[in-house]
């Protein structure tokens, strides 16, 4: 049985004036997978994520989500949520109200909203933190609030833009495992943007390596590590922490089997 395509980019071009940022990019993202857009600064990965979200329009091409052409549909009407690098939490709202914000805007009934919020906070291990404000939380806790706010809307797709970048190395590695476990538990489709090779190789089901506005290789972490298609890919992934990569991948597979 073939995997169902949830997001499809067809021959997407994005230009700002005469400068072409995304060059005839086509990509399928499957339902329930963790796909990472990986590449150096300026390669077009964040613009690609923003095109999926509707925060950027396309110059040419189509954006199809769940079988519907949403190319010209604004971000507010797309079935996706985005988590940004700075988490974008409201400093004057406590954890509960931050997570509730999208539900309130969508006019979700109060009882249903409360049920969803409690479930989301339990999933990200923040039960009991409802009354705290962002300034009273650690970076990791703030990131969990942002994730809870993203999953509480019950959309099929969560977009994450460098969402672990602000965390220290130890916490980042812990959150890599937690984020992947959460994605597997929810069965959601995650599209993740990063320039961090370790991060991508640890969490992803598939990786799209980007350079100069194009995808230069698409495959599983093992395929990309073992068989880089060109010198750019080979050079870009050559400095990963191989010991951590093997350890975390083995841990993931062991947890999956259990």
Question: Could you please describe the fold and organization of this structure?
Answer:
- With 258 residues, the chain is α/β, with parallel strands linked by helices.
- It folds into 2 domains: 1-74 and 177-258, Rossmann fold (3-Layer(aba) Sandwich), CATH 3.40.50.300; 80-154, no CATH class.
- The protein is 39% helix and 25% strand.
- The chain contains 9 helices and 10 strands.
- The protein has helices spanning 45-53, 95-105, 110-123, 139-151, 169-186, 197-203, 221-226, 231-237, 242-257, and strands at residues 5-16, 19-30, 34-38, 60-65, 68-69, 80-83, 157-161, 189-194, 206-211, 214-219.
- The strands form 2 sheets. Strands 6-7-8-3-9-10 form a 6-stranded mixed β-sheet, sandwiched between helices.
- A hairpin with a 2-residue loop joins strand 4 and strand 5.
- The longest helix has 18 residues, at 169-186.
